[in-house]
Amino acid sequence: MGRSPYCDSSGLKKGPWTPEEDHKLLAYIHQHGHGSWRALPSKAGLERCGKSCRLRWTNYLRPDIKRGKFSLQEEQAIEQLHALLGNRWSAIATHLPKRTDNEIKNYWNTHLKKKLIKMGIDPITHKPTKNNNEEMKVKNNINNSTLSHMAQWETARLEAEERLARQHKIQPIPSSSGGVESPTTSSTATGNCQHLAGERGVADDLPSSGSGSAGESKNYGWPDTILGEFLRF
DNA sequence: AATCGGCTCAACCGCTATTGT
DNA sequence: GACAATAGCGGTTGAGCCGAT
C-alpha cells in the first residue's frame, strides 16, 4: 500500500509543543474543527505534521480530558480491564471517561505493572506468578471465571457493534451528544463510548463466537450493569 | 554543590484498519 | 477490486524532573 510517511521530513517541527503552537491549534479547531488532520497544520499555520497535531489534540488539548493522579477506582478499573482486554488501551480508555489511552498506557507501564509484579501477579496473565496463599487462589478463581465470561461477552459484543456500525452508515442515527464534546471528538474513544451508551440493544444480537479483529479497538461501550458487576471484583 | 540513576510522561514511530476514488 | 490517502492504535523513546549519594 502506498502509505504516506509519518511526517514529511521537509522542515516540519518535532518535539515538545510550545504554548504558541498549542494556542494556534486550539484556536483553529475551535473555529473550524479539525477536518482533515493532514491539511490542518498548513491551514492553522503550524509547522507540524497532521499526525503530531492529532496526537497533541487527543492526548493533551481536548477540553474533556482529566489530568492528574489516578483515583483508586480508576486504578482498579484499569487493572481489571487490562485483565480482560489486554494491551488494548483505547478500549480500556473508553471505560475511563476523560482519560486518554496514552495516559492509561503510561500509568500501566510505570505504576500498575510494577505494583502487580510486587504483589506476585503476572501483569500479562494476571495470575499469581508463584503459589501464593489460598486466599489469593480463591480470589483469582473468582476473577478468572468472571473474566472468562466477560471476555466471551466482549468478543460477541464487538461483532454486534461492528454490524451496528455498518447499519449506521446506511442509516445514520441522530446525534444525542450535548456536552463539552467538541466537533472533533466524534471518532474518539470517549465520544464513541457515549454514543454507544444509547445503543446497548446490540447485546441482544450476540453471536456465539467471535473473531473481532485486533485493530478494531474503537467503540467499546459496556452495559453499566455488567461493567459495574465486573468492576466489583 | 555535583552527579548519578530511576521515574514520569509527552511525543514519536511503525504498523494496521478504514475510507475514498 | 485495486490502489492511495487518512485515521487510529500500541510500542518505544528521550528530555526533564527529583531524590539519593
From TrEMBL:
<keyword id="KW-0539">Nucleus</keyword>
<dbReference type="Pfam" id="PF00249">
    <property type="entry name" value="Myb_DNA-binding"/>
</dbReference>
<dbReference type="InterPro" id="IPR017930">
    <property type="entry name" value="Myb_dom"/>
</dbReference>
<keyword id="KW-0805">Transcription regulation</keyword>
<feature type="region of interest" description="Disordered">
    <location>
        <begin position="169"/>
        <end position="221"/>
    </location>
</feature>
<feature type="domain" description="Myb-like">
    <location>
        <begin position="62"/>
        <end position="112"/>
    </location>
</feature>
<keyword id="KW-0677">Repeat</keyword>
<keyword id="KW-0804">Transcription</keyword>
<feature type="domain" description="Myb-like">
    <location>
        <begin position="9"/>
        <end position="61"/>
    </location>
</feature>
<dbReference type="InterPro" id="IPR015495">
    <property type="entry name" value="Myb_TF_plants"/>
</dbReference>
<feature type="compositionally biased region" description="Polar residues">
    <location>
        <begin position="173"/>
        <end position="193"/>
    </location>
</feature>
<dbReference type="GO" id="GO:0000902">
    <property type="term" value="P:cell morphogenesis"/>
</dbReference>
<dbReference type="InterPro" id="IPR009057">
    <property type="entry name" value="Homeodomain-like_sf"/>
</dbReference>
<dbReference type="GO" id="GO:0003677">
    <property type="term" value="F:DNA binding"/>
</dbReference>
<protein>
    <submittedName>
        <fullName>Uncharacterized protein</fullName>
    </submittedName>
</protein>
<dbReference type="InterPro" id="IPR001005">
    <property type="entry name" value="SANT/Myb"/>
</dbReference>
<feature type="domain" description="HTH myb-type">
    <location>
        <begin position="62"/>
        <end position="116"/>
    </location>
</feature>
<feature type="domain" description="HTH myb-type">
    <location>
        <begin position="9"/>
        <end position="61"/>
    </location>
</feature>
<dbReference type="GO" id="GO:0005634">
    <property type="term" value="C:nucleus"/>
</dbReference>
<keyword id="KW-0217">Developmental protein</keyword>
<dbReference type="GO" id="GO:1901957">
    <property type="term" value="P:regulation of cutin biosynthetic process"/>
</dbReference>
<keyword id="KW-0238">DNA-binding</keyword>
